[in-house]
Amino acid sequence: MKTQRRAFIHSVAAACLAAFCVSVQAEPDLLQPDEAFRVSARRVDARVVELEYIIAPGYHLYRDRFSFKTDNPAVKVAGVELPPSLEKFDKAMGQNMRYYTERVAVRVRLAGANQTVKLVATAQGCAAIVGVCYAPITKAFSVPAMGGKQG
C-alpha cells in the first residue's frame, strides 16, 4: 500500500512540475532559454568534454535534469561529473531539489574512438523568482577529435 501511495504522490508531483512548464513567449518578462542558460562546450582531452553553463541572475538549472548522448555509436558517454549543488524544498515537487545558479561546469567522459562527435546536451531550469520552469533545453555541439587523430 505504501508503494502505491508513494508512486501516486510522485506522479502527482511530476504532473505539477509539468503544469509549471510554460511557453516562454507567454511571459514577456522572462528571458529566452538561450539568454537564461548560455552553454558552451570544449574538449578537455581525448576522453573529456566540458560544458559550461552560464545562468542568468534569478534563474537556476536542476542538477538531476541534465542528460548527454552522442550521435556516434563508436563514441559513448561513459560518465558525467557534476559539482556540488545547492538544495532547497520545491513546493511543486514536494521534495528537496538540487540546483545550480550563476555558473556550472559539467564534465562528460567519453569512451570509444577519438574522433569528431556530436554531443547532445539536455538541461532543465526555471526562473526561480517567478516560479516558471522551462521545457527541457537541448543543444548539440560538434566536438573535434584531439590532436587531429581520427579513430
From TrEMBL:
<dbReference type="InterPro" id="IPR036929">
    <property type="entry name" value="DsbDN_sf"/>
</dbReference>
<feature type="signal peptide">
    <location>
        <begin position="1"/>
        <end position="26"/>
    </location>
</feature>
<dbReference type="GO" id="GO:0015035">
    <property type="term" value="F:protein-disulfide reductase activity"/>
</dbReference>
<feature type="domain" description="Thiol:disulfide interchange protein DsbD N-terminal">
    <location>
        <begin position="28"/>
        <end position="143"/>
    </location>
</feature>
<dbReference type="Pfam" id="PF11412">
    <property type="entry name" value="DsbD_N"/>
</dbReference>
<dbReference type="InterPro" id="IPR028250">
    <property type="entry name" value="DsbDN"/>
</dbReference>
<dbReference type="GO" id="GO:0045454">
    <property type="term" value="P:cell redox homeostasis"/>
</dbReference>
<keyword id="KW-0732">Signal</keyword>
<keyword id="KW-0614">Plasmid</keyword>
<protein>
    <submittedName>
        <fullName>Thiol:disulfide interchange protein</fullName>
    </submittedName>
</protein>
